[in-house]
Amino acid sequence: MPYFALIGLAGGFASAVLFMSATAGGPAGRVLLYFLAPLPSFLAGLGWGAPSALVAALAASAGIGFILGGIWPAFVFLVSQGLPIVILCHLALLNRPVGAATAGDDNGSGAPALEWYPVGRLLAAGAIIAGSLSVMSLFLLGGDLEQVRNALREMIEKVFAQDLAALRDKPLTRQEIDALAQLGLYLLPAASATSWLAGFSLNLWLAGRITSASGRLVRPWPDLAAMTFPPGMAIGLAIAVAFTFLPGYPGLISSGFAGALLFAYMLMGLAIIHYVTRGKPQRPLILWGVYFLLLLFNSWTAAVIALLAIAEPISPLKRWPRSSSGPPAQRGPD
């Protein structure tokens, strides 16, 4: 068996074990294991190529199906976890020659220099995948809004009856459960899309750092603070936000894509802050302050940071003049 396939099998089974382990233990442990479950598969994909990630996806799905005793759980895991990892690893390692190298180039071998898939476009692809997965999760909960509300009611009752029972002196009333289910109906698409994109971004970054440190990452480490989104992404965000005011499923579907795109712009805003503070003596204080505010006032701070990225074309915090020559040369990790 090829070595990349063995690595893929190991990574897939490790992801399956982490995913199933997320069903046990305390809430904090569950969240941590759930977010880190894709990491072994990302390591296989970035270190040994997208074919290894595909083997990992199939192995993890088979393991989930075997443990849960059904084809449907395996299929859902493959679509929601396995295939997105394969796509993102393929894009991360995608490259094309841009011209012949000279003796003064880094490779010095006369081989064509390579242009790697831009990180901003990779994040944009992750946002589209996350928005699509939020739509899928809606339809898995029910075929109409009332079925989704009933599913949310059952989940709320289960969570407050089992996981959070010790935090309340008395059980929730029917009116309180209905109100929470209605609120959750509008928050679910954006929240789930944000969760998907956060998980993909975290694991892709961690896997990249690990494979880069081990020498298995074939592409040079990109300048994350200099990433840019593809043209038209801001228009896509504006359309998604506008369509969230539509009633029924169209509004909920738009909410999922709007949440993913806003989270992507929040990451872009953090990149801008990292970029414009380079070389400044106050940089550590500024960065610590921003991340502290992001942790303390999560939603409000994230919205401000996202607006910073959206307004970059007319903002004094531009990272470089937009021109055909593209962004500045790559730097080390930031």
Question: Describe it for me?
Answer:
It is globular and about 65 Å long. The protein contains twelve helices and two strands; from the N terminus they run αααααββααααααα. It has helices at 3-21, 27-36, 39-48, 50-68, 71-92, 119-141, 145-163, 174-214, 233-243, 248-276, 283-296, 298-310; strands at 95-100, 112-116. α7 crosses α8 and α9 (233-243) packs antiparallel against α10. The protein has a two-stranded antiparallel ribbon. The model is unreliable at 321-333 (pLDDT under 50). With 334 residues, the protein is mainly α.
For the structure shown, list the relevant keywords.
single chain; 334 residues; mainly alpha; two-stranded antiparallel ribbon; 12 helices; 2 strands; disordered C terminus
Q: Give the CA-CA distance, first to last residue.
A: 38 Å
Helix tally equals 12
Helix content, binned percent: 55-70%
The residue-averaged pLDDT reads 84
Oligomeric nature of the chains: single chain
Largest sheet: 2 strands, antiparallel
The H-and-E topology, N to C, reads as HHHHHEEHHHHHHH
Beta strand %: under 5%
Strand-pairing-aware structural class? mainly alpha
Question: What coarse outline follows from CA principal-axis ratios?
Answer: globular
Give a count of the beta strands, DSSP E runs of length 2 or more: 2
pLDDT under 50 segments (min length 5)?
A: 321-333
Biggest sheet, strands in spatial order? 1-2
Instruction: Please compute the radius of gyration using only Cα atoms.
Output: 22 Å
